[in-house]
Every structure is written in C-alpha cells, then in structure tokens.
Amino acid sequence: MTKATTSKIKIAKARAAKPLAAKTVPVKSPPQLKSKFSQDTIAIVYDFDGTLSPQPMQEYTVLPKIGIEPQAFWKQVHEEAIATGSDPMLVYMRLMMEKLYKNDSVKITREDFSAMAEKIQYFPGVESWFPHINAYVKKRGAGKVNVQHYIISAGQKEILEGVSIRKYFKQIYASEYHFNQYGIATFPKLLITDTSKTQFLFRINKGKESLSESINDHMPESERPIPFSNMIYIGDGMTDVPSMALSKKSGGHAIAVFNPKIAKTKETCVRLLEAGRVDFIAPADYRNASKLAARVELLLDSVIAGVAYAAEVAACKAENKAENRTDS
C-alpha cells in the first residue's frame, strides 16, 4: 500500500469519527396579535342655523350689510320659489347675488364673506362646547377613542369659514359660490338642501370627505372609518329630518335642539321626538351643566362602550386566527 493511499484512508477515518454539526432549525416567532381595528372615531355632525346660532347666518352678515330687512327677504324667496317652482335655496342664493350687485358699497369676494362672520351670535356655551366634548371623550375613552366635529349646512360656506369656532371642525359642508378670476362671486357652484345633506353623512361614514371622491362604490361596513353607530347628528327642525332619519336607521343617534325663547321651535322638536326621528330633544344651551350636555354625554358613553366592544371582538377574532395558524 502506497503512502498516498495510507494518507487518504487516515483522512477518511478522521472525518468519519468527527461528529456531524447539528443543523440549525429556524425558530418561528409567535404571530403578532393585531386586531386591525380602526373604527375608534366618533363623529358629531351639526346643522348651523337654529342649531349653533339662533338666526340664519345671513341675518347677522349679508342682509344688514346691504340694508335689507330679513323678513322681507325671506318672504320674497318663499314667494318666488312657489311661483316659479324653484328650489328655495337656489332662489335665495341668486337673489342674494342680485342684491349685492346692486349695492356698490359692498364687495362680494370670498374674504368679504368670511369677514362678515364676526357678527354671528351663538347659543349659550357654543364657543366652549367643543373643548369640553373633546376632553370628555378623551377621558371616558381612556385616550383610545377620538372625536371629530363636522358642519353640514344649507347656509353659505364662505361665511362659515370665518366663524370664531372654525378651528374645531374637521370639515364644513355648505352651499358655495363660484368666484371668477377677479375674486368676485358669480353663481352658485354647490347647493346643499335638506335631502342632499345625507350625501355628506355617507362621505364621513366612508372617509371620502373630498367632493372629488366618489361614494357610490360598495365599501364593506368593517372598512368604513366612521360607522353610523359612531355618529351623533344635532339639528333643529324639519330640514334635518332626512339626516336624522338616516342616522337613526343606520344605527346612529340624533338630537333636536330648540330655542327656549321661541315656543314653536320646541313644538317642532316634540313632533320629531314622537315620530322617532331623534333620541332626545333639549334647549339649545351648550353650557357644561345643561340638559343638552347631559344627553350628549349619555350618548357618547353609549358610543364609547360600543367602540370598546367592537375593538374587543376584533381582538378576539385576531387572537384565534393567530392560534389557528400556530397549530397548523
């Protein structure tokens, strides 16, 4: 046997005697238990005229500016709408422009409309209402629930953009004018009526808040950022009925407020209550110790509990799906 052959045999024996290195088996980390729950936002949606403010916004702003008596103006709007079979809101917006054009001392730019908003008056407690409600939801929801405020109004957006409480609203949906290249209002570009208000509830519901986004495509209820059950609609009268009815029918809530100084406004709210359009009615007093505050807080407690329940259901489902993946 040659030396080379002997050397090969020794090397082979040494390799055979050497223990094989253990194979490294990757250890799977336990699956993350994510519930994917995101429906933790409450939306409080407000009408404006008669809800947050005692009178139509035009009666604080444009009409006094051009020296027109409000009662006579609204009478003209009503009569022309009946005579021509027109939508009263379109008649109002057109007549407003015509009267503004005839008054050379008043400009009709977007900035002028916004500046007029400083004259608007509110019901008691409105200006401190939003910080109070935000703090209440944060406390009762243990920081796990958010609240957002919205306005949906047939009034004029250019005016509402200048109100002192503007900073508290995520979105303001209201009728708008088109402004030409000189910044002058020329014709209505968006009209919001009592029935078209419901479109904007769906926008909030689906998270499609821009007018450029379509809300017609189907969206599963579980994917909607703010389910109707997380909504509270606050209005003051018959023009709010479609929005109140949609909110209630879809699992949400509604409250009607009235001006305690005007008896007929309470009568309207009582009819809404008896017809099941609203959960509660209350005077339009937004101060902390008011009946309205107590009833809104009661509804918020109910919604917050619903959010906690839905979040726990989602977590439970995610947990069991993770266990099934681990077992398999």
Which features would summarize this protein structure in a list?
328 residues; alpha/beta; Rossmann fold; 11 helices
General description of the model:
The chain has 328 residues and is α/β, with parallel strands linked by helices. It has a domain at 41-55 and 122-327: HAD superfamily/HAD-like (Rossmann fold, 3-Layer(aba) Sandwich), CATH 3.40.50.1000. The chain is built from 11 helices and 7 strands. It has helices spanning 3-17, 62-65, 70-84, 88-101, 110-116, 126-140, 157-160, 197-206, 241-249, 263-274, 291-327; strands spanning 41-46, 146-156, 169-179, 185-190, 231-235, 253-258, 280-283. The chain has a 7-stranded mixed sheet, sandwiched between helices. Helix 3 packs across helix 4 (88-101) and helix 6 (126-140) packs parallel to helix 11. The chain is globular and about 75 Å long.
Q: Supply Rg.
A: 31 Å
CATH superfamily of the domain at 41-55 and 122-327: HAD superfamily/HAD-like
Approximate helicity band:
40-55%
CATH topology of the domain at 41-55 and 122-327: Rossmann fold
Residues in β-strands, percent:
5-15%
How does the overall form come out from the CA principal axes?
globular
Question: Could you give the distance between the termini?
Answer: 58 Å
Average pLDDT reading: 89
In the predicted model, the low-confidence regions spanning at least 5 consecutive residues are 29-34
The second-level CATH architecture of the domain at 41-55 and 122-327 is 3-Layer(aba) Sandwich
